[in-house]
Amino acid sequence: MKVLTCLLSLAVIADYVHATIWQNDQTRITDYPVTVINPSQYELQTYAPNATELSYKGRWDSKYISCAPGLKFGFTGEYVAITFGPYTTNATLIGYRIDGQDWQFTNVTANATHLLVSPSTAGINVTTPITPSTFELRVTNWAYGIQIASVSVSKGQRIIRIPNFDRTIEVIGDSLSAGQYATLEGLASYAYGLGAGLGNTEYTITAYPGICLFDKRCYGNLRGMFYQWYYASDVSGRAIDIYGDNPELWDFSKQPAADIVLINLGTNDANSVNNVTTSGYVSQYTKLIEGVHTVYPNAQIILLSLWEGFGAVGNTYEQAKAFVPEIYGIYEYFNSKEYLDQPVLYDHATNSTYISEHPTKPFVSYFNTTGLMQHNDIGPQYHPTDVGHVKVASHLIQYIKIKFGWILYATGPEVQHDTLYWNDMANY
Ligand SMILES: *[C@@H]1O[C@H](CO)[C@@H](O)[C@H](O)[C@H]1NC(C)=O
Ligand SMILES: *[C@@H]1O[C@H](CO)[C@@H](O)[C@H](O)[C@H]1NC(C)=O
Ligand SMILES: *[C@@H]1O[C@H](CO)[C@@H](O)[C@H](O)[C@H]1NC(C)=O
Ligand SMILES: *[C@@H]1O[C@H](CO)[C@@H](O)[C@H](O)[C@H]1NC(C)=O
Ligand SMILES: *[C@@H]1O[C@H](CO)[C@@H](O)[C@H](O)[C@H]1NC(C)=O
Ligand SMILES: *[C@@H]1O[C@H](CO)[C@@H](O)[C@H](O)[C@H]1NC(C)=O
Ligand SMILES: *[C@@H]1O[C@H](CO)[C@@H](O)[C@H](O)[C@H]1NC(C)=O
Ligand SMILES: *[C@@H]1O[C@H](CO)[C@@H](O)[C@H](O)[C@H]1NC(C)=O
């Protein structure tokens, strides 16, 4: 499967920032409102990016840069403005919303202040049932990213810390989890659909286009997820320019431990251009799980089987396969009496494994994706369409509900945006 990487995308940013979104062979109109303001014309109360009222979601580095981020806070008054720093990829599309209103979109400009909430924002004058009002922002494109320089509200008003929900999910993956080539990418991926779709759940999507699980250079990403999972920065050209091959460690105590971790990695390892051996993949996949179990000892870990692509075979279509017995074998290993009696843990700091003194209960599940998608759920760029992502997310939500007893709390506000297509006639 061929995927563009963060690095490649950045190298050709001028051309690729203005991607065209195709909708049933027609161009989707993306004339999002321009929200740049001159802040000197407003009376603003401004907060630094390290304000304790701001809740960052997902991985952010110490410069408040992220290519996979979310930001959430409560606010009083009728204005919210955000200033984006110089490391922002110019014209990156962000989604943002207040309360339970629909997502809105704007392209952000580096070194500029954007007025994202004002008295003309839908729902701004309605104060119940969500109070204080909440503001939430997500970046759609996983290769580009933004830097938060400051957050402002009207003078005399304030921002408010919103407590975390008490359950957390993390998806560790590649472009398939990042949502690359879905219409709204990060806000259209199955990983987002799962995290947001469960409702009342914190979700982190640690997923970089083009990355292998095995720790080697794949499509321009310097390292594989076996290594990169422990670091704050992403794998983009911007991060390489700043940190080289010495990124900042991620401080796992910054955010709540995950209760459920999904791993969907191997599609890039399976591509022969990346030269990953099967034994290397199995060995590092095993150690990645041992490392996740060390960092989050109480997390349930779900291994997704790889869906790969589909191809025409004779007069029908068939799904391609990769690492099928390998991933299933890893699942069996972690559920064997041998492992559960004497669990092996992995310590990233010393790059070594050791035997835990405490037996463990089973914590690894296998999620079989075969049969969830069909050939036309994979788009011309070899990644799921929006419909494909919705299918995978929907099945995962129900799997997690049935297997782990998670109640579904998303009961009204939209999760997927721009999916309201329908037929306006009874017969056609
Ligand atoms: C905003 O971003 C979208 C998605 O990348 C793109 O299609 C659109 O052309 C951009 N608009 C501007 C004005 O940069
Ligand atoms: C935020 O950073 C500034 C320095 O840039 C520091 O003076 C301040 O104490 C920090 N605030 C918090 C809440 O950490
Ligand atoms: C943002 O400012 C920095 C200097 O602080 C400059 O290097 C960069 O080109 C600016 N970016 C844009 C898009 O204007
Ligand atoms: C940054 O993007 C905006 C559109 O969002 C555009 O108007 C502006 O010219 C761009 N700036 C640079 C330096 O490319
Ligand atoms: C909010 O403003 C809209 C548009 O001006 C108006 O139609 C609506 O009645 C207002 N709602 C409240 C609760 O004031
Ligand atoms: C894969 O191996 C071939 C032959 O040794 C080498 O030419 C190529 O650069 C390698 N590719 C990667 C991505 O490691
Ligand atoms: C980690 O250890 C493995 C052997 O267990 C070795 O192959 C690999 O090079 C080591 N990685 C680093 C970064 O030292
Ligand atoms: C996964 O599902 C496919 C399709 O139903 C089935 O053929 C396959 O045996 C399943 N794999 C496992 C490990 O259960």
From TrEMBL:
According to the lineage, what is the superkingdom? Answer: Eukaryota
A GO molecular function assigned to this protein is:
carboxylic ester hydrolase activity
Name the InterPro entries on file: CtCE2-like_dom (IPR037461), GDSL (IPR001087), PCW_deacetylase/CE (IPR052762), SGNH_hydro_sf (IPR036514)
Q: Which SUPFAM superfamilies match?
A: SGNH hydrolase
Q: Which UniProt keywords apply?
A: Signal
Q: Where is the signal peptide?
A: 1-19
Kindly indicate whether the keyword Transmembrane belongs to this entry. no
Q: What is this protein called?
A: Uncharacterized protein
Q: Which organism is it from?
A: Coleophoma crateriformis
Highest lineage ranks of the organism? Eukaryota, Fungi, Dikarya, Ascomycota, Pezizomycotina
